[in-house]
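Marked as duplicate of an earlier ticket. Keeping the data here for the record.
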Amino acid sequence: RALRQTAGEAIASQSIQKYVAAMVSIIWDANKYIDDMEPWILRKTDPERMETVLYVIMEVLRCSGILYQPLIPTSANKILDLLSIPEDERSFAHLETGSVVPGTPISKPVGVFPRIEVVEPVEA
């Protein structure tokens, strides 16, 4: 709800920079959550907890996909397609009323954004 409010206020004031900053922040937080929770380890030690962690990640991706639509509509919709989110459940109103339905089959994961390889400069 806080993210929806922050995003709504940024859009209402036409502060695209604040909107983008809020969106980048949620992605950084999600990456940290994945690193901290280590679902690849939970798979062996606590499968039930792993399912919860993966659900939380999918829900963050769903909300991010919805919120990213004004900025990068094609990529945001690819994310929502991968999560099998129906097209009629992709509006901001569904941030609070919708959710990823547990057990819903998802598409085989494919990269939405190209991986950027950072090449170290070669010293002469």
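See parent ticket for discussion. The mean pLDDT is 89.
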